[in-house]
Amino acid sequence: MNPPSPIRFAYFGSSRLSVIILDELEKAGFLPALAITTPDKPKGRHLTLTQNPVKEWALTRNIPVHDPAKLDSAPGSAFAEMLRAAKCDVFIVASYSKIIPASIIEIPARKTLNVHPSLLPLYRGPAPLQAVMLDDAKNTGVTIMRIDEKVDHGPIVAQKEVAVEEWPAYEEFEELMAREGAHLLAEILPGWVAGSIQEKEQDHSRATFTKKIAKEDGLMDIADASPASQRKNFLKIQAYRQWPVAYFMFEHSGKKIKVKVTRALFLDDKLVIERVIPEGKKEMSYADFQNGFIGSGQSPE
RNA sequence: CGCGGGGUAGGGUAACGGUAACCCGUCAGGCUCAUAACCUGAAAAUUGGCGGUUCGAUUCCGCCCCCCGCAA
What we know:
Elements: E1 9-13, H1 16-27, E2 34-36, E3 41-43, E4 48-50, H2 53-60, E5 65-66, H3 78-85, E6 90-94, H4 102-105, E7 112-116, H5 128-134, E8 139-146, E9 156-163, H6 170-194, H7 227-239, E10 247-252, E11 255-267, E12 270-278, E13 284-285, H8 286-294
Parallel strand pairs: 1-2, 1-6, 2-5, 6-7
Antiparallel strand pairs: 3-4, 7-8, 8-9, 10-11, 11-12, 12-13
The structure holds one RNA strand.
């Protein structure tokens, strides 16, 4: 079905974004020789073991998968030897949630490339997509860079600008950026492996950093009706749809409950909430929420 | 046995031992140039299921079914 790939590479990834990139690479005719991902973790209401999406993707295509809890880079370790024996031209990393030891990224002749969904040196770090959205930075882009010893610090191999009119839901934005990143990667990969593409040092003086998201970051101030505040709430709703989900607190029948906002619009400088999930309840329309929890016409504090 | 919330009229919420209330919607009538606004009235609930306690259970107890949140 798939023609043998002229380029032999190992793929490091663990999230949904990783899988979208794999899909696009596959369409462009690039299949990894092996995949490295993270171990399955117990999830769900009864802590059922859930397979991570990259593993699932690779297994359905009969691509060997490794999911080490730790990347053992010691010379002679089984993992490092395995990677060496794979004789890859290059390694590709996309949203792999661990830092890869320097001795491993140096294994392939053409080293290790990373797909990063921002215009580096801007938005380095763990949550670039969310940070871009929260900053309302509609002119953004994707970067292919060579990984060096510091996080998101390596030289740039290729970059492409991507702009949006208005923020879609996080998943959609993630998908867009993943596809753009994958297209760019597919475009430059042959040239990179052939050695005909020059890399360029990042301008480290312009670097900005994103931080890990905390659950409390999802708390909104919906009492403040100013356009700036409402805009901020809208951005939170869009950016945090997967996790932690933007929410506000609401007092009902004597207890404080958390109300998550799952869908909203931003119209005429105003936040229009469309769907919510009150704690312990199912998702419902905001109108229903107001009818039952508040009474007609009012807004929650 | 990881922690927790919940199943009440078409939708959402309340009552918490004496057969059910409120908001929205629906239907009828009225007001209005008009209306998704306002006024009046009406229909609509075996209170998830099965047992138990009780003179009497939506309300207390047990079991079962279904739904959801947290665990990054």
